[in-house]
Amino acid sequence: MELRSLGALAALLTVGGALAADIPRMEDGKPDFSGTYDITTLTPFSRAPELGERRTFTAEEVAERRQRAHSQLEQAAAPLDPDREMLAAPEGQARDRGVDVSGDFTPGSYDFHWFDCGGIYCDFYQVDGEYRTSILIDPPNGRMPPQSEAGKARQATLRPYYKPKYPGEAWWLADGSDPYDNPEGQSIGDRCIYMSITVPMRPVVYNNIKTIVQTDDHVLIMVEWMHWPRVIRLGSEHLPEEMTSYGGDSIGWW
Length: 254
Fold this sequence. Notes:
Blueprint: E1 3-5, H1 6-14, E2 35-38, E3 56-57, H2 59-77, E4 126-127, E5 130-132, H3 149-156, H4 171-175, E6 209-214, E7 218-223, E8 228-234, E9 250-252
Parallel strand pairs: 1-2, 8-9
Antiparallel strand pairs: 2-6, 3-5, 4-5, 6-7, 7-8
C-alpha cells in the first residue's frame, strides 16, 4: 500500500506541464488519485492573527517550529516518575486542554500519544516550494470569517448538551432537561454515528488517514475517523431533494 501526503499531491497538481507525465493516470488518461494519504500537518488551518496577510514562513521559522513540535513529542513520550507529586490545579489558571468556562480542572482529554503531530515526518505542508502560514488562504488573512447571523440562530436551537460538559454543577437539573439520560439524547458525533469530517477534508486531532479508490465513474474517499466512506458520482446529477443523507450528495466532473 502506497502512503502519500495530500500536501505533496496538491503541490504536484499545481506545477506546470513539465511534471504532467509523472502524475499517475487512469487508462483514459485522467489523473488517478487512488492511494492512501496522511493529511496531518504542522501547518495550522487558520493563520495566527499577528501574521496578517503573510502567506509563507521562512525556512528558519519552519525549523524553529518543527523543533518545538519534536520537543513536545519527546517530552510527552518520556517515562513518568511513579513517585511524582500529584498535580494540583493552580488558582485562577487553566490547563491547555479539558478546561471549562470557570477555568477549573476537568477530566481532561487523551494522552498526547494519541494526537497526530503532523504526518509521519511531523512537518509543514509545502506548496510550490513554500511553507504556508495557514491552510486557509481565502480570505487573504487566512482566517475563518465571523459566524453569520443565520448560523448563530441555528446554533441557538441545538440541545443543551452543547454547553460546556463540565461547568462544575448539574446545570440540567435546574432547567429540567435530561441530556445525559439516554444515548438518543446525545449528538450523532458523541454516539460515533457520523461526524462531518469528509467535507471540508482538513486535518484534525487524529485519524487523519484517507484512502481514495477511483474508477471511471466514481471516486470513493474512506475516512479513518469512524470509517466513513464518501462516494462521489462523476458526471452525474444530484438525487431528488426528498432523498437525503448525513454526508450529503456528492457529484463531480472532469
